[in-house]
Design goal:
CATH superfamily: P-loop containing nucleotide triphosphate hydrolases
Order of helices and strands: EHEHHEHEHHHEH
Radius of gyration: 16 Å
Shape: globular
Number of strands: 5
Helix content: 40-55%
Largest sheet: 5 strands, parallel
Strand order of the largest sheet: 2-3-1-4-5
């Protein structure tokens, strides 16, 4: 069930799906560092870095031996898919994603260089307009990757729990 060659991992999905939380939990289990695309793209003053800076940061990251990358960023998704070995697509219902966004208001998060203090209607619109078809098209195109599609927070928690048990019981499974 689990790929012991999981070394370069993408976690993608709608805003609010729980990508960062899942990435951190997975990192604890397989001891691979997490990199949040939002931290590569955003400054603490809520402005973005120049596109060339983001691309340079991403390219350097993709050359690393092991990583978990959390974030969608459709513009660079195919570049990341080409070099990863494992993809987690968190295909979470829109209502759950919206609740996830509401729940993080006022909380410091490792994936953002600021604390969100209010709901951003434009950002919420990203959830409503999230294009799963484009993601499924890429997953079909790169069908040589190990892909996990998780459709609820319970499935995400169960995956982590099962992976911990699998690693504990299989001494040959190392990361």
């Amino acid at each position: 069930m689990y790929n012991k060659d999981m070394q370069k991992v993408l976690i993608i999905g709608s805003p609010g799906a729980g990508k960062s939380t899942f990435a951190l939990k997975l990192s604890e289990v397989i001891a691979i560092p997490v990199y949040h695309l939002d931290n590569l793209n955003w400054k603490s003053d809520r402005t973005v870095v120049p596109r060339a800076t983001f691309e340079k940061r991403l390219d350097a990251l993709l050359k690393k031996e092991k990583w978990i990358i959390d974030g969608n960023y459709q513009r660079t998704m195919e570049k990341r898919i080409k070099v990863c070995d494992t993809i987690f697509f968190l295909d979470i219902p829109k209502a759950d994603c919206l609740e996830g966004i509401r729940a993080r208001i006022g909380k410091k998060r490792p994936d953002m260089p600021w604390v969100e203090t209010e709901l951003d209607e434009e950002f919420m619109q990203l959830v409503y307009n999230f294009d799963t078809k484009a993601i499924f098209d890429l997953l079909d195109k790169y069908n040589d990757k190990t892909v996990y599609i998780l459709r609820s927070r319970q499935e995400m928690d169960t995956f982590i729990k099962d992976l911990k048990l699998k690693i504990k019981s299989d001494k040959t499974l190392t990361f």
